[in-house]
């Protein structure tokens, strides 16, 4: 990455070399929020004014569920009030009616935000009151569902000040479904308890989609002063705290400095009201320069709180400080699994935040952050596989089991489960009666598995047996199996009732063979419910996805090559598959004319009829070479078909691939009277795989630069189509330049860059990645913290931050393409594609990463300053010892055995000398 041309535009700045950053006047930017999370299921978000939410799942929100607009419109927040004797009322979080009124005046307060992995601190200073606050928030690592907040108040004046502090955090304590559905009625279920330290709410029942159940979950807000001093009392009922006509940003109890409603330790409880974690601390007098600290604990538990244990673990300033350092160390270790060192130290630190994002996606799923105000938690099918791309680099030890578990979601008709359970490998039968298939889903598992095989060399994985998912849907959701008894479980069975299992290779074949025959009237694979772009969801009848036809074609070719490698490396000559699947391997029996659409559909229907949500259990033994030949023939047919029939010739010279047909059977892309219609997706997959011929690549690049590049927001996902396109998808109902309709969608932009690197167009690929970096780090426009957003909208703002699969793709691209750390069926392939600015002043660039269960630091030395394309690898040293190079067309190979012989648990230095020459 290049340095941002004008650092003043960045807004935030890194404060060291560990990814910590600082932002002045953070409260002057809307829509900012920061994630706080742990492996135990606590999921929080916090804004510069301490808005946000705290939850452990869709049905267990401690604070009210919010959307991104609530960050600045809602009065509910993690507030901490100070009544200053003789001067009035002040919010240490900045959330008071008076402070909001002064926001755009000279009396506005000085605010500084600091943040790191994964902690958040806001410092605020009032010149009028000579008072400052520092509020630090984090979710402790571990399994406790706890969020901690430490407030430090300092007297900046020259005379003593008397302060009365009050924490005020709304306790919503129920399901997100109740936000507008029986909001008041569900408050009647609240049982509100007080103790020595705070307020606990355990609703009597839970009203949600699961029914009216007895509730056991408990929610609490507790507080201590310093190292364990108890509060004075509590305000447990929200309406009594704010007073008649009052509000959460100007509550009566604080403004008039009213005595607490309940004295600490009396055990008084209330029922049937909206609850508040209102904690009144003892009045304190601070001398000039003196400070006082408070710790606020927000907790969710599956039963009543063990308050003694909770306070013992978290209830002191010293415990807070110790746990904060533990938390910093935990997250730093996570992101430091991969480290980059280039000519731009800021870009290297920025990549640490990108590295964190796949972990956040694993923990949050696609929900529970302010922009991600949809879904009920968990991840979708595509997420399971794409998130594994980053895990292969960051947490490789976990990936094999995850991949194996994920294959249990495949149906025998080649589709897959779309309801994902809470635990790895858990898939749930349909409960909403929505029959839908995303046509791209079958393409991703093989791509991820191939990356795993290249990294591990674990060819035995292909022969491991796994079950299949079964629910009432069959024939790719065209039919329903009304005879199915789900009491038998959601697993595929044989005709005799036994659970059926097939190899991972069988699952891969099934997922890629079925789509080949599932074609529309132009002989491309049907679009069905949608493909990668969920917004293309209105072409189920006659729509076709040309772009994913090319992806499936490339998969078929690569599976063919893998089978030949499997035979060569292991001597395996036979593979076993369910006898029904042999119908799809038509060249081995009675070949179908692939030009015949009706012939393909007829064969597919024969397959569906042979496996109607169950199989015979009989397996066929097939010659591995014949299967490889079958797949290669199918792949070659797809490539020739696309090049001949889906290439769009441009009047300006060159051309590109049409990506789609709409529900009227019309070609979507091309040069029309009303303008050019082009999608970036339609170019990425032909480029990334084998479909685009070598002479088509530069033509595609020129067309993308001409039709999709916007200097203001980068590479658009599509050009302006005009109209809402009800024959294609809801995406075109969005305003142009927003989300899936013409925004810079990071996922596809990065995949485009990846594809260009793969094809050897390194400078062009780097330009694409560089544009994303520059856009994301231009804070004046993007208004986002370090990292990449899901997309950048028409005004240049970064949208849907943190939870985006594009982070996995950028990390993968940097490791495997830019730094060239690749696997080749277990061996290490070095194929660097670094360019001049990515080397430091000494001509060095390095990466730390895991390979073959060893931590490696690969240091490239380009002391001659050669440009990409001019240098080659001349020598390799491992820990100072010369390595005999095995040169291949891509670069050099280091045998896996060479690496596994190295001492485990240490970082090993691989020095790679680059010299001029080809």
Automatic annotation (TrEMBL):
Residues 78-315 form the Glycosyl hydrolase 94 supersandwich domain. GO terms for molecular function: carbohydrate binding; glycosyltransferase activity. InterPro entries: 6-hairpin_glycosidase_sf, 6hp_glycosidase-like_sf, Gal_mutarotase_sf_dom, GH65_N, GH94_catalytic, GH94_Enzymes, Glyco_hydrolase_94_b-supersand. One of its GO terms (biological process) is carbohydrate metabolic process. The keyword Protein biosynthesis does not apply. Residues 330-820 form the Glycosyl hydrolase 94 catalytic domain. It comes from the Bacteria. SUPFAM superfamilies: Galactose mutarotase-like, Six-hairpin glycosidases. Keywords: Glycosyltransferase, Transferase. This is Cellobiose phosphorylase. It comes from Paenibacillus wynnii.
């Amino acid at each position: 990455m290049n340095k941002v041309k004008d650092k003043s535009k960045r807004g935030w700045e890194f404060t060291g070399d560990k990814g910590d950053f600082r932002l002045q006047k953070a409260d002057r930017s809307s829509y900012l929020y920061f994630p706080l999370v742990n492996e135990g299921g606590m999921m929080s978000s916090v804004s510069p004014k301490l808005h946000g939410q705290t939850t452990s799942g869709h049905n267990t929100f401690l604070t009210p569920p919010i959307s991104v607009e609530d960050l600045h419109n809602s009065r509910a927040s993690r507030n901490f009030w100070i009544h200053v004797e003789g001067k009035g009322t002040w919010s240490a979080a900045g959330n008071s009616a008076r402070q909001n009124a002064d926001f755009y005046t000279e009396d506005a307060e000085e605010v500084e935000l600091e943040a790191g992995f994964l902690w958040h601190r806001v410092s605020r200073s009032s010149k009028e009151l000579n008072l400052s606050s520092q509020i630090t928030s984090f979710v402790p690592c571990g399994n406790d569902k706890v969020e901690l907040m430490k407030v430090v108040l300092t007297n900046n004046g020259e005379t003593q000040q008397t302060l009365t502090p009050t924490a005020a955090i709304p306790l919503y304590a129920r399901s997100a479904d109740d936000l507008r559905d029986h909001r008041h009625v569900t408050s009647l279920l609240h049982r509100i308890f007080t103790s020595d330290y705070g307020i606990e709410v355990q609703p009597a029942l839970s009203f949600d989609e699961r029914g009216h159940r007895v509730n056991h979950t408990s929610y609490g807000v507790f507080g201590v002063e310093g190292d364990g001093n108890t509060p004075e009392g509590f305000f447990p009922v929200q309406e009594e705290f704010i007073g008649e006509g009052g509000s959460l940003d100007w509550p009566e109890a604080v403004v008039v400095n009213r005595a607490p409603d309940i004295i600490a330790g009396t055990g008084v409880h209330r029922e049937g009201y909206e609850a508040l974690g209102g904690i009144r601390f003892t009045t304190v007098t601070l001398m000039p320069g003196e400070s006082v600290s408070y710790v606020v604990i927000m907790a969710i538990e599956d039963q009543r709180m063990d308050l003694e244990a909770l306070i013992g673990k978290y209830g002191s300033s010293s415990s807070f400080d110790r746990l904060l350092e533990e938390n910093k160390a935990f997250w730093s270790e996570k992101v430091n699994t991969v480290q980059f060192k280039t000519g731009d130290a800021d870009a290297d630190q920025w990549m640490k935040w990108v590295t964190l994002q796949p972990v956040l996606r694993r923990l949050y799923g696609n929900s529970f952050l302010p922009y991600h105000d949809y879904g009920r938690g968990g991840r979708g099918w595509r997420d399971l596989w794409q998130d594994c791309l980053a895990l292969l680099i960051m947490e490789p030890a976990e990936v094999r089991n995850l991949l194996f578990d994920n294959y249990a979601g495949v149906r025998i008709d080649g589709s897959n489960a779309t309801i994902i359970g809470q635990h790895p490998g858990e898939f749930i039968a349909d409960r909403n009666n929505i029959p839908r298939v995303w046509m791209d889903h079958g393409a991703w598992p093989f791509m991820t598995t191939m990356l795993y095989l290249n990294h591990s060399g674990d060819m035995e994985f292909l022969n491991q047996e796994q079950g299949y998912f079964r629910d009432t849907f069959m024939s790719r959701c065209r039919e329903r199996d009304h005879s199915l008894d789900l009491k038998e479980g959601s697993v595929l069975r044989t005709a005799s009732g036994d659970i059926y299992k097939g190899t991972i290779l069988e699952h891969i074949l099934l997922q890629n063979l079925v789509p080949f025959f599932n074609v529309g009237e132009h002989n491309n694979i049907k679009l069905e419910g949608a493909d990668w772009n969920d917004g293309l969801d209105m072409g189920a009848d006659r729509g076709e996805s040309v772009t994913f036809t090319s992806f499936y074609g490339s998969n078929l070719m690569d599976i063919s090559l893998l089978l030949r490698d499997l035979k060569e490396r292991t001597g395996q000559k036979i593979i076993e598959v369910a006898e029904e699947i042999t119908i799809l391997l038509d060249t081995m029996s009675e070949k179908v004319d692939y030009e015949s659409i009706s012939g393909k559909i007829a064969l597919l229907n024969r397959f569906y009829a042979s496996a109607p949500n169950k199989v015979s259990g009989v397996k066929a033994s097939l010659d591995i070479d014949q299967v490889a030949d079958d797949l290669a023939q199918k792949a070659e047919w797809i490539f020739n078909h696309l090049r001949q029939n889906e290439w769009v010739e441009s009047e300006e010279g060159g051309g590109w691939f049409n990506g789609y047909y709409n529900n009227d059977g019309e070609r979507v892309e091309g040069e029309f009277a009303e303008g050019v219609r082009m999608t970036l997706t339609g170019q990425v997959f032909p480029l990334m795989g084998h479909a685009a011929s070598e002479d088509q690549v530069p033509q595609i690049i020129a067309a993308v630069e001409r039709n999709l590049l916007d200097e203001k927001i980068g590479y658009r996902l599509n050009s302006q189509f005009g109209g809402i396109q009800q024959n294609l998808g809801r995406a075109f109902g969005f305003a142009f330049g927003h989300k899936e309709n013409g925004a810079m969608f990071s996922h596809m932009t990065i995949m485009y860059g990846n594809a260009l690197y793969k094809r050897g167009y390194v400078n062009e690929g780097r330009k694409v990645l560089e544009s994303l970096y520059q856009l994301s780090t231009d804070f004046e426009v993007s208004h986002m913290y370090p990292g990449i957003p899901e997309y950048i909208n028409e005004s240049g703002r970064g949208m849907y931050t943190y939870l985006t699969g594009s982070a996995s793709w950028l990390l993968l691209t940097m490791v495997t393409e830019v730094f060239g750390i690749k696997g080749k069926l277990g061996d290490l392939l070095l194929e660097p594609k670094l360019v001049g600015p990515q080397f430091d002043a000494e001509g060095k660039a390095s990466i730390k990463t895991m390979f073959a269960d060893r931590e490696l630091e690969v240091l490239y030395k380009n002391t001659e300053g050669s440009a990409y394309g001019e240098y080659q690898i001349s020598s390799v040293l491992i820990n100072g010892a010369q390595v005999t190079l095995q040169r291949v067309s891509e670069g050099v190979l280091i045998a896996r055995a060479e690496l596994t012989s190295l001492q485990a648990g240490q970082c090993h230095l691989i020095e790679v000398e680059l010299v001029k020459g080809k």
